[in-house]
């Protein structure tokens, strides 16, 4: 199997922006957020499990998941968040693992990057390392707070609550093999991503040469 990279960050640190830059440069992005939406589509096993666990109130009249209502619940109720994660995480993981396997079977030297918001939390809490190297998209907490308020139209209190639901961004730094500082301009981030891709390609080539 090839080298599997993981990209993570914190809410509003710009992980999706960096993932898009990596994709533009040829990386295959295996996106947890994409699969999180797929596994709760109408008619899915995931959505039915959520309906049974939380009730019809968390569905729209057309049968789709009311994401905002469910988010408000799980960001303010730790027990509810654990119950939701117990439903969705195994389904998301299965789909992501399938995509990784298919990508590496097609090209063992592909740059495969698993985009997982809570990658480091799962490493710390479960002692599980699903990737070979970790990329962290970082901004200082004050920047994170301001960006989240602006992006989601949240009050400072609401934004603080969402940030506090995650592991503090500064505590994630020691777990990262590579750090992209996304607190500057887009051009500065692009420059860092260019350098990162060179390093990822070198690692993949080295791993391929060892086989």
The Rg value, from CA coordinates, equals 18 Å
Uncertain spans: none
Q: Average pLDDT value?
A: 93
- Helix coverage percent: 55-70%
Tell me about this structure.
About 60% of the residues lie in helices and about 10% in strands. The termini are close together. The chain has a 5-stranded parallel sheet, with helices on both faces. With about 210 residues, the chain is an alpha/beta fold. It has 10 helices and 5 strands, in the order E-H-E-H-H-H-H-E-H-E-H-H-H-E-H. The longest helix is centred in the middle third of the chain and has 29 residues, at about 80-105. It is globular, with a radius of gyration of 18 Å. About 30% of the residues are buried.
Describe how the helices and strands are arranged.
Elements: E1 4-8, H1 15-24, E2 28-31, H2 32-38, H3 45-54, H4 67-74, H5 78-106, E3 112-115, H6 119-126, E4 133-138, H7 141-152, H8 156-164, H9 169-172, E5 178-181, H10 186-210
Parallel strand pairs: 1-3, 1-4, 2-3, 4-5
Helix pairs in contact: 3-5, 7-8
Features:
10 helices, alpha/beta, 5 strands, 211 residues
The gist of it:
By secondary structure, this protein is an alpha/beta fold. It has 10 helices and 5 strands. Helices cover 58% and strands 11% of the residues.
């Amino acid at each position: 199997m090839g080298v599997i990279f993981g990209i993570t960050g914190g809410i509003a640190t710009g992980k999706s922006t960096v993932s898009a830059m990596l994709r533009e440069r040829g990386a295959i992005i295996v996106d947890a957020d994409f699969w999180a939406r797929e596994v709760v589509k109408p008619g899915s096993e995931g959505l039915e499990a959520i309906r049974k666990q939380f009730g019809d109130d968390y569905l729209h009249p057309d049968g789709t998941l009311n994401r905002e209502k469910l988010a408000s619940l799980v960001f303010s109720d730790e027990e509810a968040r654990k119950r939701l994660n117990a439903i969705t995480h195994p389904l998301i993981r299965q789909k992501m693992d399938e995509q990784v396997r298919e990508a590496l079977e097609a090209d063992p030297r592909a740059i495969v990057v698993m985009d997982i918001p809570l990658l480091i939390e799962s490493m710390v809490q479960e002692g599980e390392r699903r990737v070979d190297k970790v990329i962290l998209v970082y901004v200082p907490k004050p920047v994170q707070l301001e960006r989240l308020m602006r992006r989601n139209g949240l009050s400072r209190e609401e934004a603080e609550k969402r940030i506090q639901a995650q592991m503090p961004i500064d505590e994630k730094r020691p777990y990262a093999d590579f750090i992209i500082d996304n607190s500057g301009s887009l051009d500065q981030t692009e420059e860092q991503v260019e350098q990162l891709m060179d390093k990822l390609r070198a690692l993949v080539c080295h791993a391929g040469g060892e086989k």
